[in-house]
Design brief:
By secondary structure, this protein is an alpha+beta fold. It is built from eleven helices and nine strands. It starts with a helix and ends with a strand.
Amino acid sequence: MIDPAATLAPEVAAFRQFSRFYTAYIGALGPDHQGSAVSLTEMRVLYELAHRDGPTAKEISADIRVDPGYVSRLLKGFRAKGWVATTPDADDGRVRRLSLTEAGRAAFTPMYDRANVVAAEALAELAPADRDRLLSAMGRIRAILDPQAAPGEPYLLRPHRPGDMGQVIAAHGRLYAAEYGFDMSFEALVARIAADFIDKFDPARHCCWIAERDGEMVGSVFVVDADETTAKLRMLFVDERARGLGIGKRLTEEAMRFARSTGYTRMTLWTNDILTAAREIYRKAGFECVAAEPMNAFGATMVAETWERDL
């Protein structure tokens, strides 16, 4: 039998030399990956939890090619910190689904943002032509080593930060004008809601989740208080470029999870009959339409609806 290591010795040496260079370059060898206070493997497990809808420990270990026992130990540590929640699978109670808690997302988001800053700084040092060559080469490497790999990341949910409200307002204005013919009075309403959210923001009672894909905002949802026991879901949207990924469902679920954890016992929302996709998300999430009345607003004729559900 031919020994491939001997036959391909120069190629093997070049492959390993590049591996040594790249792992050192990205800071993969230290216990604190890129100043994140977690190792690279821990960061990757947190990334999978933040980007996927209820994965199992087995699925994560298989996809990132890490020993299941090691992943199990990492998850145990995350649970001890209050970063990870476990729930039974809806179809098989023996299977445990994993998700990040509010504390887990709050811990992960700055780490993820820092990693993006480090990558941006590295790319900014390159001339545009070299940057294009580098990214093209990375794409070719991935395609050669794993032809079945899906391109690009799915999406990330994170809390709001400075600059987000302007994007939320603009996105709503563009989307609702293009798809439903709303005029600029709708954008003005969204701006007032966003300003009110910032002015009265109480992290113990209110939240906003931003959905990001490839570094761009593609969705949002807000939770504010309607009264002491009732939360109000507001400004759910998903950009047309990111539909089909389950973002609307996920945003709604995260809003409900936050409301429950904060002590609300009921959730309400306002929508209208022409928002068929959003209404279907609400229906599947257990909301029911409790009131409806015709209205003319934003340059359109519609039926305004109030939906509610117990938490």
